[in-house]
Amino acid sequence: MIIFPIIILISLVLYVYFKVAILRTSDPLVQLFINSKARISLGIFIAIFGINQYLYYETSIALYVTIVFLILGTIQFYSGMKRYSHYKKELNKSSNKE
């Protein structure tokens, strides 16, 4: 199962990229928009990491940890998606005014 480590690595790199991109912008609305993308990447990272650990160990403790990671990853992903759609609309409104 080489696909899970690849997804984990890509999502981790995207998370770090978005967090660094926040430092390069001065507009608070753009910072919040980029932070929502970082939350999505973090949610994917946490959820896929949990699944990967269960597939590696296949124990009952790993199952419980995987369930917790899936719940936390899903919460991060869902929150990031809601914020992403909200701030995308706000950015469109602010760019149309100018």
UniProtKB/TrEMBL annotation:
Membrane-crossing segments per the record: 6-26, 38-55, 61-79
Keyword annotations: Membrane, Transmembrane, Transmembrane helix
Pfam families according to UniProt: YtpI
Membrane is among the record's keywords: yes
Domain of life: Bacteria
Protein name stated in the entry: YtpI-like protein
UniProt organism field: Aquibacillus halophilus
